[in-house]
Amino acid sequence: MSPELSDQIFTPVQFLRGVGTLRAEHLNRIGIKRAYDLLFNFPRDYLDLTQRCEVDQLESGKLQTVVGVIESWQTQSTRRGQMLSLFVDCGKGFVKALWFKMQFIMREFAIGRRVMLTGKPKFDHPFWVMMHPEIIYLSDKEDDITTEPFLPIYPLTEGIKQHHLRTIMRNMLPDYAPLLEEVFPQDFLVEHKLLPIADAVKAIHFPTDRTAIACAKRRFVYQELFVLQLGLAVRRLQHRVRLKATPLTSDNKLDVRIRRRFSFELTKSQETAIKEITQDMSQAVPMNRLLQGDVGSGKTVVAVYAMLVAVANGHQAVFMAPTEILARQHLRTLSRILEGSQVKIVPLLGGQRPAERAMILQEIASGAANIVVGTQAIVVGEILFQKLGLVVIDEQHKFGVMQRAALKSSEKFDPHYLVMTATPIPRSVAMTVFGDLDVSVMKELPPGRQKVVTYVSGVEDRAKWWDFVARKIREEHWQGYVVVPLVEESENFDASSLNKVYEQLSKGELAGFNIGILHGRMSTEEKERVMFDFRTGEIQVLVATTVIEVGVDVPNANLMTIESAERFGLSQLHQLRGRIGRGKRPGYCTVFANITTDESQKRLKAFASSSDGFKLAEEDLKIRGAGDLFGTQQSGIPPFKIADLVRDKEIVIEARNDAIEMVTKDPGLANSEHATLRRRMLKKYGTVLNLGDVG
Ligand code: ADP
Ligand code: MG
Prior knowledge:
Layout: H1 3-9, H2 20-29, H3 35-39, E1 45-48, E2 64-78, E3 81-89, E4 94-100, E5 114-119, E6 121-124, E7 127-131, E8 134-138, E9 150-153, H4 162-176, H5 186-191, H6 197-205, H7 210-242, H8 252-259, H9 268-281, E10 288-293, H10 299-312, E11 316-321, H11 324-337, E12 345-348, H12 354-366, E13 371-375, H13 376-379, E14 384-385, E15 388-393, E16 408-409, E17 416-421, H14 427-430, E18 438-442, E19 452-457, H15 462-476, E20 479-483, H16 496-507, E21 515-518, H17 524-535, E22 541-544, E23 557-562, H18 570-577, E24 587-592, H19 598-609, H20 613-624, H21 626-630, H22 632-635, H23 649-665, H24 675-685
Parallel strand pairs: 4-7, 10-17, 10-18, 11-13, 11-15, 12-13, 14-16, 15-17, 19-24, 20-22, 20-23, 21-22, 23-24
Antiparallel strand pairs: 1-9, 2-3, 2-5, 3-4, 5-8, 6-7
Helix pairs in contact: 6-7, 7-23, 7-24, 9-10, 19-20
The structure holds adenosine-5'-diphosphate (ADP) and magnesium ion (MG).
């Protein structure tokens, strides 16, 4: 493309035919400054002129549209106020439109002006009459359905009317659309059934039919997703080439030794995940894998397996959890599994005395410690490992996945990474926000897992529910959680809502039972004591904030009450519910909600009707949108302009496969046919994805 052409497409809008200084100002106000911006100011909808009726086809009382020219109009005083009647000549007959107290619309009337009326007509001899129809002004030629069956409806700004903008677009499209730079090679367009850019832009403004709209949209969505996937594919490739890890291998003998430590058979899902992980770890490039497994699918065991492989290879492993409660639970699990073995596990937690901490750091630096368990916050920092082989990050769904934890090791190679999450990430999102990770999915739960029955309840059901809870605790020694949302779990922690619920229950419905309290602001010792008492059954009911949301595993706790459930997101509710039904008996979960919006109603209904985390995550995406859930911002990826990870999930997969194929064939994107794509990709994602110098 020559520089003159590229300049031309950036012509300021005021120099375009039909724009002028004043309209240019209005357009500038909504960010449309140049010809290029106009081309990409896509219609938000279309007027479908093919749906219009001729007068002799009208049916009484049905919403219909007619097109014609203004014949005359008049106003008249009536008891209902000023009545305005408009006569429109529709060719095969007249339609009369009536409005009350709407004289102001007269200002737009002119004899001979083309209009479109949409309303429910009644026949009132000798005319069809529409009361308060919607009126749209068309330019002279705008009712020709053979050339323009659909008219674009643009997002507008004050001072510019639809028909102005349509005229501007009609004038500029034939000249400017062909100047757009095509990013895809010609063969690629044909092979992937994509409209060339100029055709797509023309079709999106003035489509010939619905298929044309869909094809044009698909092209732009595909392009946006493809460019990102191209960046992700290049990043994966770069990691493969640049980062070096020590291969950590396993064999049959080691496999038998590790399995002997587990008290149960592994599930098929666990077997598959382990196979994928050990395969990755045996490579000289660092593993970069996301283990995505629904709540309770048994991810910890998989992590333990991987860590023992690292240890058997003379390397250290670190296991990081998002909360201290979870880190301590992992410590206990590991100590139990590895009891009597040579493996030395050390904790890195809050509240450790300086001397104790210094000793642990020394053990980590000398290599005496094989496995380090701690919270993300504490482990990441000035800790020096002797020979770090594997990093496991548990429940990583609250922070961006693009950044790796900064861990130091005397080892000059990079460690392998295993990231685990119970937040079931829909495939389309995993491939985008998590696009540079390999993914293992565990859908299966260990055998014997119990159902959780879920109720969405109102105030009227309270007595019955608490009665049920009290009976189960008294007669069958069950335990339960009561989860209370905090208005703000931040600096100014306010435990009052928690305390209130505690007071009420201990004086009222659950009087006589041992009730505990747990929240994030308690000291480490307090938290640990409460969790200990709960695990041993001393505490029968735990009133807690969402600190118990992730990972906590107390199989005897089978009852869950969630207060003000409307404040929780769907995935969060699913996480919470995952705390129960872990033992031999079914779980019961009741959410009390103050339902005020359709959205919360939908959410809670979805929650009660499914226990499949993957399904719920899809549902959550539909209700809330991807940005909100997985914060593309958090991940560092700029938001999409056109693509939507829910609506366009098939295109995500297609674009990803195609991008991988392109990068496999042309790793540096050095082929001149790929130059434009390469430039676009680097401009948008080079920094975010840390791509450096490609090729
Ligand atoms: P999550 O994937 O939610 O982290 P956990 O690793 O906490 O799940 O496992 C949940 C429970 O299931 C634990 O009590 C664990 O011991 C148990 N478990 C894990 N794998 C199996 C298995 N294959 N068979 C039976 N129980 C298992
Ligand atoms: Mg877990």
